[in-house]
Amino acid sequence: MTFFNAPVPLMARRTVGAAFAAASCLALAACAGGNDRPEADLAASQVTQIGVNSYLWRASLETLAFMPLTQADSAGGVIVTDWYANPEQPDERVKVSVLILDQDLRADALRVAASRQVNQNGSWVEAPVQAATVQRLEDIILTKARDLRRSAIG
Questions:
Q1: Crossing angle of helices 54-63 and 131-153, rounded to 10°
Q2: How many other CB atoms are found less than 10 A from the CB of residue 149?
Q3: Is 63 helix (H, G, I), strand (E, B) or coil?
Q4: CA proximity to 143, closest of 99, 105, 104
Q5: Residue 14, number of CB atoms within 10 A of its CB
Q6: Residue 101 to residue 109: CA distance in whole angstroms
Q7: How far is 24 from 145, CA to CA, in rounded Å?
Q8: What CA–CA distance (Å, rounded) separates 48 from 141?
């Protein structure tokens, strides 16, 4: 490589390259501006500090807070509860799994599955779960997540 038709040693080329890179970074940093970000950026719909959307994660934990947890993995977005029996219906128990699939706050980023068992003659037997139950849980979680985001904005 030559500047003005004079050969430049390898070490000088590396130094010039490093200086150019540093100057470019400083120039870009100066263009970043100050605190003139829009309010909505403070509570963006994509929050990735824990691996999944934090609003969906917090809303899921709040919704299932009455049930004992067996697994809660924020990096993978998995929440699994232990069996829960409502004191008013001791012959029936429910287990819920929540999977957060994306980093965005979207309805299709959430999957809820539920298992239900009933006690028949002293043993627990699988029973169907109404689809409306799972849909209702998803709706509750999504509504809470949206509320959390709104409260973070304003």
A1: 130
A2: 20
A3: helix
A4: 105
A5: 10
A6: 5
A7: 40
A8: 18
Which token pair is 29?
């940093």
**45 with 102: CB under 8 angstroms?**
no
Locus of tokens 């819920």: 96
Is the pTM higher than 0.90? The answer reads no
Spatial distance between the Cα atoms of 33 and 141, rounded to a whole number of angstroms: 37
Q: What is the pLDDT along the chain (154 residues), one digit of tens a residue?
A: 444 444 544 444 444 454 445 444 444 444 455 555 445 444 555 555 678 999 999 999 999 999 999 999 999 999 999 999 999 999 999 999 999 999 999 999 999 999 999 999 999 999 999 989 999 999 999 999 999 999 988 7
Looking at the DSSP assignment, which residues form a beta bridge with residue 93? 117
CA distance 53 to 149: 11
Contact by Cβ (8 Å): 53, 43: no
Task: Compute the CA torsion angle 134, 137, 138, 139 (nearest 10 deg).
Answer: 120
Q: Supply 123's token pair.
A: 């043993």
